[in-house]
Amino acid sequence: MKVKMLLAVFLLLAICSNSYAQDTTAEGDTTAISVDSLRLPAPPGNLSGRDKPNDHGHAIILDWELSPDDGGGSNSVLRYDIYKWVPQLMLDINLVRDSIIIIQKIIRKTTDGIEEGSQADSMLKVFSKFSKDELFDIRNRLTDHIKAENEGLAEASKSYPENGAWLFIDKKPSGTKTFDHIGSKEFKSKGFVPDYADLYYRVDAVTITGAKASSEIFGPIQSSGQWYNTYRTPVVFSVFLFTILTVFYVMRAKQGADLYVRPLGGIEAVDDAIGRATEMGRPILYVLGLGSAADIATIASFTILGRVAKKVAEYQTELLVPTYDPIVMTVAQEVVKSAYLDAGRPDAYKEDTVHFVTQSQFAYVAAVNGIMLRELPATNVYMGKFFAESLILAETGALAGSIQISGTDEIAQIPFFIVACDYTLIGEELYAASAYLGKDPVLLGSLKAQDYAKAAIIILAVIGVIVAQFDFGHYYVDLFEVVN
Amino acid sequence: MKRQLPFLLVFIFGAFMTIQYYVPHESSEFVYTFLLDWTMIIGIFALALGIWSLYHVSVDKIQHKKENWIYSYVTLFGLFIMVVFGFSYKVGDSWGMYPLFVIALMALLYCLIHASISRSKGFWLGLSGAALAVSFGVAFFDDSWKLAFMTSEGLKNTMFTNFADFVLTPILATMFALLAFFIASAAYRAFRARNVLASLLLIAAIIVMLRFNPYMPFGLPELVAETSSWLMNVPNLAAQRAIVIGIGLGIVATSLKVILGIERGYMGKG
Predict the structure, then answer these.
(1) Could you tell me if A311 and A301 are in contact, meaning their C-beta atoms sit under 8 angstroms apart?
(2) Is the CB of residue A382 less than 8 Å from the CB of residue A417?
(3) How many beta carbons lie within 10 A of that of residue A38, not counting itself?
(4) Count of C-beta atoms within a 10 Å radius of residue A60
(5) Cis bond leading into A346, ω under 30°?
(6) Of A152, A278, B34, B193, which one is least surrounded by beta carbons within 10 A?
(7) Tens digit of each residue's pLDDT (9 = 90 or more) over B147-169
(8) What is the pLDDT of residue B243?
(9) Are the C-beta atoms of residues B145 and B88 closer than 8 Å to each other?
(10) Gap between the Cα atoms of A46 and A271, Å rounded
(11) Backbone angles phi, psi at B49, to 5 degrees
């Protein structure tokens, strides 16, 4: 079997090498045929390039001056073709990449995009003779081959201009003076651009008749990844200042400073709502929303759930927590279990208090609405990340006659909750709730830091409004610019 | 150690993720992707726990004959049958004995449910064994269909696609469509002119609704359109941005508290 496979690979490489050689020659011939000295446009000038800043590498930015015939002179330039010089090794690797694509097509039983009599068709015929298992094996071997060969690309690129060819990369319309060559970082991809390898470029001005004039060749240049994104400096600076502010107020709180936090109606109502449920002998429904355990809103909701569960355990009321995400379910189970333990009622904890329903948004809504209408909970608490289901849940709860407390950081859902619920925590109040519930001075310290940060933002915004009226206003705006 | 180790891990990975945001280098991206892959792996294991939880809650409902307990059978059979359909596909022209295979598996599920809740456990477990043997027998001898656990061919199974396209999708669309009626009832409650502020809200809402109403019998006065745009782009947007700034700071503060181990509520240690 191995011999068969090797034969196939050699046959494939032989077929493809010939085809590629023909392709490359054809490219050269076309240029030669279209050269008509009378109609040749003036070439683009001063081609230059630089490594794309603040990226992961594999990208070069090219700049050039427009051909005098672009928008002027004979005004005949239609577009610019961008070429990159690649060593023969890269061409060989591309052949292997093509063969992997063909193998994938055979495995998936599709021949889409393969024309009869083409080079790909020849490959298809060769590989079709193999079984599925053999094809998987060949594919893996070829992938390993590419990986190994890529190591030699940097060395091979030093052979310029010998032993290589110009590859067409992209075309840009007339009037364009720059091009970002964003290559792939995946060595398996055909658009792969190796880092720390010499790269050479040229740009051709092309007329409507196909006549081309090449710029001077630019190179060598190397692409590389950066270790710091300077575009994000304003974010670093802001986060650093805010961290200092937070740590300062946490320290102050630890030293016993009296920190005032304004009352949050929604949180103060939690105790009353639990008391109401106890008196009515009905359960409390706690909905954590559709967020994952990684969402900050869900993390804040876990803390509030812990406080609610502790009170529920003390009052011996029933708690229902249907969840949307299995990881959220696991964490919520741990939170509720610990709360029952803290309340001195570990025996009252039931595993099914927190249970999984489904990961389908509206199926989850149907299930929770069903619980609301069957169990008629005295209190519904919605804390976390909510989307289109927010109003369906809250309105059903209102129809069932439950007291409803909600909190979310999803701006679009806040109005729905305000309308349908008795108390709503708006945005950041959700995060503040955990600190407020616990009255822990350390947690309250961070709330103070948030308040002062907000004050600073208001002052900066007011200064911005004033400064923007003057010519030099853009300097101030530039200080806060963050490029993604 | 049992308490400290999770906090140490949170600190290490939290700090890494914070720094990673400022490092565009490929190595940083690789570690980031690697960690995200791990969360997916954990999610898959957690899903098994979730399904077990769903099974447990449904069986509990059946056992105690709670309100609408009969629908718990629908939940469990629906869950199980879609899993079976998703892992099997037709090879020949007909499905052969596939219906018998599915019925045997449904019987197996029914027997397992009753083995969990009935006093005569042995009897139901015996029946479960018989149902399992039948399903194995059919799967082994019938060549007209196959089981596919490692490929996605089962997802093209017509049984699977028909249930998904003609049962599940319309049901979900129906649930979503309910939103229109709930918006109407919520709007009715919100726009009652009880005091000055509520009256202002009502007037603003009428202007915006008029602006977006496609069935206006007469031309909309320019003033209404301009007022509506102003309401949406100035006071509404200003309030939204204020909330967004607050949320942003809240997220940074909460993340800091989590990374530094100040906020421990999510671990049940408030």
Answers:
(1) no
(2) yes
(3) 5
(4) 22
(5) no
(6) B34
(7) 888 878 888 888 899 999 999 99
(8) 93
(9) yes
(10) 73
(11) -65, -40
Q: What is the pLDDT of residue A9?
A: 53
Is pLDDT at B268 greater than 90 in this prediction? no
Q: Is the dihedral of CA A62, A64, A69, A70 positive or negative?
A: positive
Q: How far apart are CA A340 and CA A334, in angstroms?
A: 10
Please state, in angstroms and rounded to a whole number, the distance separating the CA atoms of residues B185 and A420.
9
Average pLDDT, chain B: 90
Strands A379-385 and A164-173: unpaired
Please enumerate in sequence order all residues whose Cβ is within 8 A of that of B29, keeping only pairs 6 or more positions apart, or say none: A56
This prediction has a pTM of 0.84
CA distance A3 to A130: 12
How many CB atoms sit inside 10 A of residue A49's CB? 21
User: Is the omega angle on the peptide bond into residue B6 within 30 degrees of 0, that is, cis?
Assistant: no
Q: CA geometry: angle at A349 spanning A348 and A350, to 5°? A: 115
Domains of chain A: 2-221 (2.60.40.10), 230-258+443-478 (no CATH), 265-439 (3.40.50)
State how far the Cα of B14 lies from the Cα of B264, in Å rounded to an integer: 14
B18-55 pLDDT per residue, tens: 999 999 999 999 999 999 999 889 999 999 999 999 99
In the prediction, which pLDDT does B26 show?
A: 92
Question: How many other CB atoms are there within 10 angstroms of residue A351's CB atom?
Answer: 13
CA angle B118, B49, A392 (to 5 degrees): 95
Q: Give A232's DSSP letter.
A: G
Q: Which residues from chain B sit within 8 angstroms of residue A421, using beta carbons?
A: none
Q: Which of A56, A352, A457 lies at the smallest CB-CB distance from B57? A: A352
Return the pLDDT at A35.
47
Per-10-residue mean pLDDT of chain A, 484 residues long, equals 48 46 41 53 94 94 95 89 93 87 82 78 83 86 86 87 92 95 88 92 93 92 94 92 89 84 83 90 96 93 92 93 96 94 92 93 95 94 95 95 94 94 92 78 83 91 92 88 79
Contact A239 B42 (CB under 8 A): no
Chain B contact set for A294 (CB, 8 A): 39
Set of chain A residues whose Cβ sits within 8 Å of the Cβ of B236: none
Identify from B254, B256, B260 which residue to disrupt to test chain A contact, counting A C-beta atoms within 10 A and taking the largest count. B254
Burial class (CB in 10 A: 0-12, 13-18, 19+), B214: exposed
| Strands of A88-142, DSSP E | none
Across the A:B interface, residue pairs with CB atoms under 8 Å apart total 202
Here the contacts of A343-352 (C-beta below 8 Å, separation 24 or greater) are A343/A310, A343/A311, A343/A313, A343/A314, A344/A313, A345/A313, A345/A314, A345/A316, A348/A313, A348/A316, A349/A313, A351/B56, A352/B53, A352/B56, A352/B57, A352/B60
Cα–Cα dist B157/B33, whole Å: 33
pLDDT score, position A247 = 87
E strands, A4-139, in order: 45-51, 59-65, 77-87
